[in-house]
Amino acid sequence: MPIHMSCRSHQIRRGVLTVALATCMGAALVSCSDAESDGAGRQAVSPAGDTGLAGLAQKAADTGSLGVIVRVDSGDGKPVEIAKQASWTKEDHRIAVSDRFRVGSNTKTVTATLVLQQVAEKKISLDDTVEKWLPGLVEGGGDITVRMLLNHTSGLGDFLLTPEFLPSLTGQEQRTWTPEQLLAVTPQQESAPGETYSYSNAGYEALGLILEKAAGSDLAELIQERITGPLGMKDSFLVTNTDATTGKQHVTGYEPDAERLKAILAGTVDLPEGVGFAGPERREDNVDTSAIDPSWSWAAGGMVSTAQDWQRFQTALISGDLLPEAQLKQMRTTVDAPEEGGGYGLGLMRVDTSCGTVWGHTGGLPGYSSEVYTDASGRRSVAVLTSTNFGIKEKKAATANKTLVEAATCQMLGEPQPSGTPAE
Predict the structure, then answer these.
(1) Strand 286-288 and strand 281-282: pairing?
(2) Angle at alpha carbon of residue 317, lines to 42 and 351, rounded to 5°
(3) Where in the chain are the domains?
């Protein structure tokens, strides 16, 4: 999602809700033990691995993840598909692997792909300045290039914690924001352009506007015409209004209530009493955040999709079906981003795990966390979707969620579950 947090330590980087809402797969996936290689040159995973993964998913759900969808596609057979949830959440809806889900900042990879398609068609140059495309809209835009926006080295701050926007983020205020309005309330640059990696949703709002100017179409149409339509992603779309749950069943998202939220952030930021997310009260001190409008996140994080659809997109991208070789190489050229577990390219994360390198992105919005990755070839993929964001920042929940993501990633890469992982 657009709201970002350091993955290694689960500590807030830039304040209150900005970073705490982010999802992260984390760089520090634990070591996977060796196994005998199968005939395809990958590690053999026993059938017990699927049972173990299901057990880990249920444990994560019961420990604080609340609802979990896991989908592992090894590229050589029927995918492993798992949907588990805490028992009380079944009163709201019963989760299925095919449910729609707000994928948050995973959207950035789609935005970046569309920009690079325009680069390939010579309509945009990575060295173009923001000022060239959006005159007067971004302070210091004459020194910021399209490449810097894509790899978060623009130096731009973010709008998430501004007094103007924060009530919309938490759902306390119902307001429709335009990208121009969000850029207008974005704080001054945090660092000089091109100097260092610093995650900025504002940069991707600017990219969306540049993309629309270059292509002569609005972003939702571009996504459908160039990505979701050709790939047959029938359950994927950009949210353009307050109703993100129209049509097919959509996962219900939850966050801790104000009291729990204050405790989660204690020691990092002192939240005023009563500050929290808007929504109906639910069991175990949770709030249903499904009605919070995510459309503000737009090019930075506004897509709804499913595990299967998003894996289809990422495998098509990494295997070379969506971009020419030159642009895919540029996308995978990374800057150092240790908080992401490795590096950040042009809308794409590289996470270096003990089981191997994976490519993809993370996402998070109020009530929704997601991690979707492929192997280096794009043949294999893994998706872990979780129906809370802050809820998995509590210690036990964070540990259970991390263990699940580790095991699912290792299984995707053909490795056994990490040493010490319980079988059920």
Answers:
(1) antiparallel
(2) 60
(3) 16-107+234-412
- The string of pLDDT tens digits covering residues 88-112 is 999 999 999 999 999 999 999 999 9
Q: Please give the sequence-ordered ranges of beta strands (E in DSSP) within 15-131, or none if there are none.
A: 67-73, 80-85, 101-102
* CA-based nearest residue to 99, from 301, 243, 303, 235: 235
In angstroms, the Cα distances linking 83 to 137, 248, 253, 309 are 44, 16, 15, 16
pLDDT for the residue 399? 96
Which residues have CB under 8 Å from 338's CB, separation 6+?
8, 27
Cβ neighbours for 296, distance < 8 A, ≥ 6 positions apart: 165, 168, 176, 177, 182, 302
Query: What pLDDT was estimated at residue 245?
Result: 63
At 400, give phi and psi (nearest 5°).
-65, -40
At 349, phi and psi to the nearest 5? -95, 140
3-state DSSP assignment of residue 301? helix
CB 231 within 8 A of CB 177: no
Distance from C-alpha of 420 to C-alpha of 406, rounded to nearest angstrom: 12
Using the predicted structure, report yes or no on whether residue 332 has a pLDDT greater than 80: yes
Question: d(Cα 102, Cα 293) in Å, to the nearest integer?
Answer: 11
Q: Mean pLDDT, the chain, as a whole number?
A: 87
Residue 206 tokens, joined: 């600017």
The total of other beta-carbon atoms located within 10 Å of residue 139's CB is 16
The half-sphere exposure of 135 on its side-chain side, counting CA atoms within 13 A, is: 1
The number of beta carbons lying within 10 Å of the beta carbon of residue 328 is 23
This prediction's pTM: 0.89
Instruction: Give the per-residue pLDDT at 339.
Output: 86
Q: Are 387 and 251 in contact (CB under 8 A)?
A: yes
Residue 243: its pLDDT value, please?
A: 65
Architecture in CATH for domain 16-107+234-412: 3-Layer(aba) Sandwich (3.40)
**Total Cβ atoms within 10 A of residue 39:** 6
Distance CA 244, CA 100 (A): 10
Residue 424, judged by CB atoms within 10 A of its CB (0-12, 13-18, 19+), counts as exposed
pLDDT digits (tens, 9 = 90+) for 167-210: 998 999 989 999 999 999 999 777 899 999 999 999 999 999 99
Which tokens is 120 given? 């390939």
C-alpha radius of gyration, the chain, whole number = 20
Task: Provide the 3-class DSSP secondary structure of residue 43.
Answer: strand
Q: Which residues contact 221 (CB under 8 A, 6 or more apart)?
A: none
Report strand pairing: 67-73 vs 254-256.
unpaired
